[in-house]
Amino acid sequence: MNAPSGGGADEEEGRSGESETQRLARNFSELLQELRVSQTGVQILTGFLLTVPFTQRFPELDAVQRDGYLAVLTGSVLATGFIIAPVPLHRMLFRQGEKAWIVHTAGRLAQAGLTMLGLTLAGVVWLVFDVVVGRPASLVAGGVALLFLALLWFVYPLAKRAD
């Protein structure tokens, strides 16, 4: 059985009888719904990462692990910023006649946030494996996590788009 096509040209060009303003409002609303899924997860991840230096084992980390921790913390904060950015962007430019720019920019920010989130998640997998089982296994685990997320979040949708 074939999967549904997902709307095709009607999704991008607008539904029958839908004005440009209505299409932009729908696109922005759909984007915000999508971001709600990732916002909660990235905020929890960032909050958790902020507590790590205050744990008893943190002083035991070697220099590579500490640098890796700082990298994933930074990535998580950046992902949080990118994923939440469409909301203040809209709020600051609300009723300024910039809806098309807001929708376009919000989409780009969301993509940047998801990219940063994927890198951060792979980095967290690397860090946890490095602390728990050692460097060689951590490199494999982090690489597998990165490959999995890249395939699922980017390659698979791009392959479908190319159909």
UniProtKB/TrEMBL annotation:
Region described as Disordered: 1-21
InterPro entries listed in its UniProt record: DUF6328
Presence of keyword Transmembrane: yes
TM regions (residue ranges): 68-89, 109-129, 135-156
Transmembrane helix is among the record's keywords: yes
Pfam family, one: DUF6328
Alphabetical keyword list: Membrane, Transmembrane, Transmembrane helix
Protein name from the UniProt record: Sodium:proton antiporter
Organismal lineage: Bacteria, Bacillati, Actinomycetota, Actinomycetes, Propionibacteriales
